[in-house]
Design brief:
about 20% helix
Amino acid sequence: MIRIDTLWLCSQPQDMRAGADRLLNIVVNTVGAAHAHHGYLFANLRATRIKLLVHDGFGVWCATRRLHAGSFVWLERSPGRAPATATLQLTAQQFDALVVGLQWQRLGELSVISRS
């Protein structure tokens, strides 16, 4: 198993033809460094495909996932404007929800049922 201690969602859409070296370059230029046991998630513009880049301390791993229908729930983008942040740290629960196409941003509010 590859150990991932921290997951980062990279907000800028990427060309999914990019390989591990190109994605690693994006991480280093955006965040400053790729840390061991950190995972970096990227999506294409339509958020129908994602790539996970993981630095395991010795090298990098790159995994791809795509949905056959629909799209992954990604950060909101205003037309012509960049997102407020380049990266966003995710919890393991948020990551698990994101990779199956669920509303990962709403996990906190969905865990409580109340009269409002």
